[in-house]
Specification:
- It is a single chain.
- It is built from three helices and no strands.
- It is an all-alpha fold.
- Helix 2 packs antiparallel against helix 3.
Length: 112
């Protein structure tokens, strides 16, 4: 195997820092937002974007290192892009159900 060129390392470093910034932003949003329903959005969106950046960095680095396309890493963000919206929807429904059970007047009644 050969060494990875400097320009590849710079691109990978930028993608890793961007992905880490998205993860930090999601964690900050989880701490700062006032209620459950708002707190769901920051980690789900930021973590998904951060994962795409991290996976992109991995694909670029290992493709340059092995001098062939290494694309199996894309399975991780694709899986997350499919499962995170479903999980977020289920969490929102559970939160609405609990708020209704607690008698919260801000939550609309279920559709019948």
């Amino acid at each position: 195997m050969s060494a990875v060129p400097l320009w590849v390392e710079v691109i990978v470093a930028l993608l890793l820092v961007t992905g880490a910034a998205f993860a930090l932003l999601g964690a900050w949003g989880l701490l700062r937002l006032p209620d459950f329903f708002m707190r769901m959005h920051a980690p789900s969106l930021a973590a998904t974007l951060g994962t795409w950046c991290m996976a992109g960095a991995s694909v670029i680095y290992f493709s340059a290192l092995e001098q062939r396309p290494v694309l199996h890493v894309w399975l991780i963000p694709v899986f997350l892009a499919i499962t995170v919206p479903i999980t977020t929807t289920l969490l929102a429904r559970a939160g609405i159900f609990r708020a209704r059970e607690a008698g919260n007047p801000d939550v609309p009644p279920p559709l019948r």
